[in-house]
Amino acid sequence: MFMRSGSDCFFPRESIQGSRKAHASHSKEIDMISTFSYSILNMIFLSFDYVIILIDYFTAAYEILHEHDLADLFPIVFGLMLCFFGCHYLMLVTILETVRMLCWRELVTSIHTLHHNYQIAMESSRKDDFIDTNGNKIPNMQEISRQDLLFQKLSLFMKTVDVVEVRSAVRTLATAYFSMIAALRLKMARYLALALSSAHTIGKSIPLESILSEHLPPGSKKWSGILADTLLNVICMILAIFIGGWVGGLNCAIRGSHMFVQNMITLSQKKGLLMDNLNLSDPKSKVLMVVVAATGFLWQVSHSSGLPFPINIVLFPLTLLEWLLQIVVNRWIFLLPMMNFS
Questions:
Q1: Distance CA 156, CA 205 (A)
Q2: Which of 47, 194, 291, 327 has the highest CB neighbour count under 10 A?
Q3: Is 310 a member of any domain?
Q4: Is 85 part of a structural domain of the chain?
Q5: Rg of the Cα atoms in the chain
Q6: How much helix, strand and coil, in percent to the nearest 5, is found in the chain?
Q7: Cβ of 176: how many Cβ atoms within 10 Å?
Q8: pLDDT at position 57, please?
Q9: Domains in the chain, number
Q10: What's the confidence (pLDDT) of residue 103?
Q11: Domain-embedded: residue 195
């Protein structure tokens, strides 16, 4: 009744066969999609426990650093990596920037909602593991087949989670997903997304709004913020059109430099190494950001062929993820839209 790999089961065979009969002209595509989807789900199923362990490990490490006021080390290191090596991970950077600009808050809320429902479902599942209805001191889950256990867990999951919350969260995730796909698929959209992100970061360092406010008539000063944002966006988009692929490296250098300097100041102030009134608007901070960004961008230009050793080993997980994203976007993800099921 089910497609299997070993003892695992995910997809009803009848539904796959029904799709083949209903769309006989696309039977090969349906087989390919079902096989690919099954492989992905099976991989998720097998790696889920390891992912949870990895998340717990990083959470524990973060808590230890937070106790010693060293939590800012994460964004400091990440900022430097982004500034000097970001051009090698433009797919990942584009995804992050697109989500940040379009639906970051909603996405975080949705993830928290799904995690909350997941915790409720897991707690119910743990209690269900010890239920012994026939009183033979053997839990029910050990007396039924793997297939029946799967149906029992799915039924329990559907009873315990909040359907309305999960539906809303999944809809938000789908919106973010298609936004990312649009940005990744269209090269110009990718450049413009990175350009707008650069404009947002530059706007925090250049007091363009206050400059415009000083020169605008009294009745028009309220428009200074909108005019400043529009001007920076237009300039960055024009640059993106002309410099093309290098807009990604420039954006990474600017964003990484901003992240590095901001968190360096915060960490140094916590340790009493800098004055408390020093911030990013200080001229010294701006000069440091420009120097770090320029150095990072020049490094990217001169080392565009690949990552040096041992950085390539340290960042190999990101390299693998970037490679997988390129395969998914270029070969798999648009297979379904190209199929006509009318």
A1: 52
A2: 194
A3: yes
A4: yes
A5: 26
A6: 80, 5, 20
A7: 19
A8: 79
A9: 1
A10: 72
A11: yes
